[in-house]
Amino acid sequence: MAHSLRNTASARPSSSLGDTVLQYGPVTRLLHWSMALLFAWQFLGMGLRLALGRTPLVGFFVGTHASVGSLLMALAVLRALWGLANLKRRPPHGEGLVALAARLGHLGLYGLMLIVPVLALLRAYGSGRGVAVFGLPVLPGAPEKVQWMIDAGNAAHGLLAWTLLAMVAGHVAMVVVHRHVWKDDVLHRMAGRRTATAQ
Fold first, then answer.
1. Can you list the residues of the chain whose pLDDT is less than 50?
2. I need a labelling partner for 198 at 20 to 30 A (CA). Which of 58, 108, 114, 183 fits?
3. 29-37 long-range contacts, Cβ below 8 Å, gap at least 24?
4. Cα 164 to the chain's mean position, in Å?
5. Residue 102 half-sphere exposure, CB side, CA atoms within 13 Å?
């Protein structure tokens, strides 16, 4: 009885916005799904660029790329901080090799979500262009070109971005496996709904 009461208490968030052991809270879900949409926008634009080359449609996507990327970096930082604040209350990964792989996969996603835009900002600064987010200047360019910053961005930004896409695809694939093969409730944790067994 006491054990059941402790589990019930741990399932309650510290606030209506926080996560619980049963599901992610509204702030986590908002950050997750808004970032998913923005990443879809970014990768759609880059995919069109590879497929179509320079066209007005591609130019529209490319014109928003730096602004959306900067917004994504800010959201990634906010999401990481919120995740740390809710770490002890979040749905557990479980135990065993699958759980370890899930933890490492999530760490990899978080790391790339931060590193990829940082490399782009580094390149923009080093090239002297700077960065404007939706027309608002937020990062001035270097007074003189800094070649190592440009080279680092050129060498790794695109490569790591496509690596991030591959990891996102793996993340989605594992959601499908959880849902249709292992028949568990992982998707509902982020969709904001609970099954009858979890209530």
1. 1-10, 13-14, 195-199
2. 108
3. 29/190, 29/191, 29/192, 31/75, 31/78, 31/79, 31/82, 32/79, 32/190, 33/190, 34/75, 35/72, 35/75, 35/76, 35/79, 35/113
4. 9
5. 16
Q: Is 132 helix (H, G, I), strand (E, B) or coil?
A: strand
Distance CA 97, CA 103 (A): 10
How far apart, in whole angstroms, are the C-alpha atoms of residue 125 and residue 169?
31
28: Cβ contacts below 8 Å, ≥ 6 apart: 19, 79, 82, 83, 86, 190
Say what the pLDDT of residue 96 is: 87
In angstroms, rounded to a whole number, what is the distance separating the alpha carbons of residues 91 and 188? 11
Residue pLDDT, tens place only, 53-66 = 999 999 999 999 99
Task: Say how far apart CA 161 and CA 10 lie, in whole Å.
Answer: 37
Superfamily of structural domain 23-188 = Transmembrane di-heme cytochromes, Chain C (1.20.950.20)
pLDDT by residue (tens digit) across 11-49?
Answer: 554 458 999 998 999 999 999 999 999 999 999 999 999
- pLDDT confidence of residue 198: 44
Tokens at residue 43, please? 């990768």
Instruction: List, in sequence order, the alpha helices (H) in the chain.
Output: 2-11, 26-52, 56-85, 97-127, 147-180, 186-191
pLDDT value for 38: 97
Token pair in block for residue 1: 């009885």
> What pLDDT is attached to residue 179?
85
